[in-house]
Amino acid sequence: xxxxxxxxxxxxxxxxxxxxxILVEFVWIAIKGRGGRYETRDALTSLIMGxxxxxxxxxxxxxxxxxxxxxxxxxxLDLGTSVPVIFICFVLDDLRYYWVHRFGHRxxxxxxxxxxxxxxxxxxxxxxxxxxxxxxxxxxxxxxxxLILLGFHPAMVLFVGGLNLIYQFWIHTEAIRKMPRWFxxxxxxxxxxxxxxxxxxxxxxxxxxxxxxxxxxxxxxxVPEQESDxxxxxxxxxxxxxxxxxxxFHEWVSxxxxxxxxxxxxxxxxxxxxxxxxxxHDGSRNNSNQIKAKHLARHPEDHGTPGFEGFSASxxxxxADRS
Amino acid sequence: MPxxxxxxxxxxxxxxIGLMLHLTGRSRMRVLTHDLAWQDWLRHFPDDDVVDVxxxxxxxxxxxxxxxxxxxxxSFGADTAARHLLDFDWLEHPEGFEILxxxxxxxxxxxxxxxxxxxxxxxxxxPV
Lengths: 323, 128
Fold this sequence. Notes:
The complex is a heterodimer of chains A (323) and B (128).
Chain A: H1 10-13, H2 15-32, H3 40-74, H4 83-106, H5 108-114, H6 125-128, H7 145-149, H8 154-169, H9 181-186, H10 190-196, H11 214-219, H12 244-259, H13 266-274, H14 288-298
Chain B: H1 3-23, H2 34-44, E1 50-55, E2 61-66, E3 70-76, E4 79-84, E5 88-93, E6 96-101, E7 109-112, H3 115-125
Antiparallel strand pairs in B: 1-2, 2-3, 3-4, 5-6, 6-7
């Protein structure tokens, strides 16, 4: 077994870079008069959410780390810490990120943690820092278990996860329109990720990638940004608060209220917790498939265009949405 | 990174960015016109058939009546937030009305209206 393995906390060391990059983006937008928008309270909320995310790591990170170290004790495999192993770990962890992120949009319990990242109606570098405080409660750390059981040291797995998050910082911008074609084909880019943050019917539930966009292309969730459909950022039902506590916990509160209504069956209560966002026992809400179907009913000309492949106006009983 | 340095960076960074944004005019609220309010409502609720729109004198609030139900649209920073008036409490307030949505993501909205508007809005909302 590899002992005494130590990797830096990359995200903490990137904080000065985050601040500098935000200043640069802001000045660039101010000078050019295009490439994004900043709003004081929105940006402050995002930044406080970012600080709270680091604080929650200090407070609750030990739970995941203890779980990972337990896995490390029971696995007979140890791949070491060579550079090629770190690279392979980075790629596999990005695949892990894709699935956790996809679960984050398709399972309401995980969405409750992730929703705050999508709760801004703006899209700038501060939005990247609008991160969850409640990830631990989603138990999505189990998705990292295979990596550790395969012999990647927990410290390395957490290190590459940090690099993954740092990579994703710079793609939260409207200041960069498109990267070179080869880069857009392989990597997650500002253009691809803008689409992911869109509340337009076309852009719901797509582009889950962290670093490599190839996962979306492989698993059929890729939608390219359309010149004809400008991305509208935020949630299907936008929140009306800048209070970080409400931003962090509002979906958890909604789950509680929904699941504890009187007169529901156990199945309905569980569905309020774990079904895709937009589920309701009485059909009073729309999931993403229903939103897309309704959009197609209003705009039949969009049939078969990116984001609507396989959808029809009559297909109302879908699975997920960003409510 | 030492915790003290991280803490200083975070506090100074957040305060500095906030101050910079405020001093450069990024705290201005969205001002609604009749057409903007109509357009923003459909952005939030594209399935609605809007019947009429009443914008408050300061341009920060709009009462929207649709074929189904009334709704409130209000300036939320540089953007807007909106809700149908379905599950809410409607209270008198010295500045106009206070609306308490039973929704953790929207604590309350104080709708600032002058006396004439207050009477008008109350009349519009009577059937609700």
